[in-house]
């Protein structure tokens, strides 16, 4: 399908004027107003960012005359009108519990909920929709693996291999497992290019290794790990592999069968979907071998006074009433992303990310962490950086207040990585397909002005 035709199927009309972004708000004395987006058909010669941003109502705000530039997509993505419409339709038209009722509302909600599961399975090329377990987020999915698989399969003397670049959600659950079982945590360090040392990882693997826990794409460094190789090496010693794919699934094609990891997790809110829902992929055979993580309704087959029997996966791991509307909204987000095409998104973001990196180099005394685009086959569209003698929180605060640019500052839930880099915090600009080079220019202009302001005598 041609790009322009694909976008027409995704964006039949402007999201603005629909009633979803009518109110104004204030933050620290600033007024924020919705601005009407053009309702004309997208120019096929325009960039993907220019063609898609019309469908994101939040991006059309102004703060004191400055258009919002949202560069905090590594934390959460914005939502297209189609996702909002899907949520609104669910709560207006067929709000009901799933899997339990025999009435029409429950049947429709169940069909939509399970339809979302099938969409997720197709999106990551799972062999069977029963291999997709819905959770509250990726953090809960990792905890599910740690408690349901880890506590049953890891014992004193065993080893768990991680990298120093992991998100806290991929570290802390395994610290719990280590404390409960007596297993040892082994950490892979960084190379001089500031990427996890794959040769060290390979050397750490032994018959003591029970699981390797790694990110697919780093939320700080922007680098990508060779998951297929890691899986191959791990299988040779009988170890399982868990992949945190939160920063890859929203930005590039991900094929779980090709990667071959035993567990892969991701979060809806980073892929243009609602908050409150994430998912885990594992094989049906693996899931069937695991004990439940939480107990309650839906995850049982039969309940007796002294014991219960459990449902088959994925129900076994989905106790209680799920986030029904949000899960259906995730299905709508996948429809949206699939309509554009993940390969097209990946190629555009690769170009945009390189433009961001090279533009940042024009800022005096800047230090960008992670590999340069020329040093790697893949660098995510994000840059974590510091400016000499300027605190990253001051940078983020002034960019927000004076220039309408939203970026991140802090340790990005990666304190071990920041300590390894010899810093306490960094600023991070992270992009998505609805961002543009013009916005990068606004960011760089604002950053230079901010640095001048913070370093000048006044």
UniProtKB/TrEMBL annotation:
Entry cofactors: pyridoxal 5'-phosphate
Keywords on record: Pyridoxal phosphate, Transferase
GO-annotated molecular function: cysteine desulfurase activity; pyridoxal phosphate binding
GO biological process, alphabetically ordered: cysteine metabolic process
Domain of life of the source: Eukaryota
Substrates-to-products reaction catalysed: (sulfur carrier)-H + L-cysteine = (sulfur carrier)-SH + L-alanine
Enzyme Commission designation: 2.8.1.7
Aminotransferase class V domain residues: 69-443
CDD domains: SufS_like (cd06453)
InterPro entries: Aminotrans_V_dom, Cys_dSase_SufS, PyrdxlP-dep_Trfase, PyrdxlP-dep_Trfase_major, PyrdxlP-dep_Trfase_small
Alphabetical list of NCBIfam families matching this protein: sufS
PANTHER family associated with the record: CYSTEINE DESULFURASE, CYSTEINE DESULFURASE 1, CHLOROPLASTIC
Protein name: cysteine desulfurase
């Amino acid at each position: 399908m041609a790009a322009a035709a694909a976008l027409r199927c995704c964006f039949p009309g402007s999201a603005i004027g629909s009633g979803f972004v009518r109110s104004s708000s204030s933050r620290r004395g600033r007024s924020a107003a919705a601005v009407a987006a053009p309702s004309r058909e997208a120019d096929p010669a325009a960039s993907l960012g220019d063609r898609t941003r019309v469908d994101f109502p939040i991006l059309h705000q102004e703060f004191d005359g400055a258009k919002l530039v949202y560069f905090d997509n590594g934390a959460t993505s914005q939502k297209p009108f189609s996702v909002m419409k899907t949520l609104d339709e669910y709560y207006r038209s067929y709000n009901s519990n799933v899997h339990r009722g025999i009435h029409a509302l429950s049947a429709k909600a169940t069909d939509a909920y399970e339809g979302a599961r099938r969409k997720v399975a197709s999106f990551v090329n799972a062999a069977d929709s029963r291999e997709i377990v819905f959770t509250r987020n990726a953090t809960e999915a990792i905890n599910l693996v740690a408690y349901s698989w880890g506590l049953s399969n890891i014992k004193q003397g065993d080893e768990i291999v991680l990298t120093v670049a992991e998100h806290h959600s991929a570290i802390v659950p395994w610290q719990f497992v280590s404390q409960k079982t007596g297993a040892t945590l082994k950490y892979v360090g960084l190379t001089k290019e500031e990427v996890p040392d794959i040769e060290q990882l390979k050397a750490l693997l032994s018959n003591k290794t029970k699981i390797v826990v790694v990110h697919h794409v780093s939320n700080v460094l922007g680098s990508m790990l060779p998951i297929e190789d890691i899986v191959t090496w791990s299988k040779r010693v009988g170890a399982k592999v868990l992949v945190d794919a939160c920063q890859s699934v929203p930005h590039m094609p991900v094929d779980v069968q090709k990667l071959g990891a035993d567990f892969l997790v991701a979060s809806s809110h980073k892929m243009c979907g609602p908050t409150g829902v994430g998912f885990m992929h594992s094989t049906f055979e693996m899931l069937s071998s695991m004990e439940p993580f939480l107990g309650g309704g839906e995850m049982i087959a039969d309940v007796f006074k002294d014991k219960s029997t459990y449902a088959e996966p994925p129900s076994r791991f989905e106790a209680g009433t799920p986030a029904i509307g949000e899960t259906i909204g995730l299905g709508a987000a996948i429809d949206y992303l699939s309509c554009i095409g993940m390969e097209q998104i990946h190629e555009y973001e690769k170009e945009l990310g390189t433009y961001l990196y090279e533009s940042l180099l024009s800022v005096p005394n800047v230090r960008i962490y992670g590999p340069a685009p020329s040093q790697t086959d893949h660098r995510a569209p994000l840059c974590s950086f510091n400016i000499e003698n300027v605190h990253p929180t001051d940078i983020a605060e002034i960019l927000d207040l004076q220039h309408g640019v939203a970026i991140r500052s802090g340790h990005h839930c990666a304190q071990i990585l920041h300590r390894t880099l010899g810093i306490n915090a960094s600023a991070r600009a992270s992009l998505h397909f609805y961002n543009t080079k013009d916005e990068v220019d606004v960011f760089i202009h604002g950053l230079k002005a901010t640095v001048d302001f913070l370093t000048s005598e006044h």
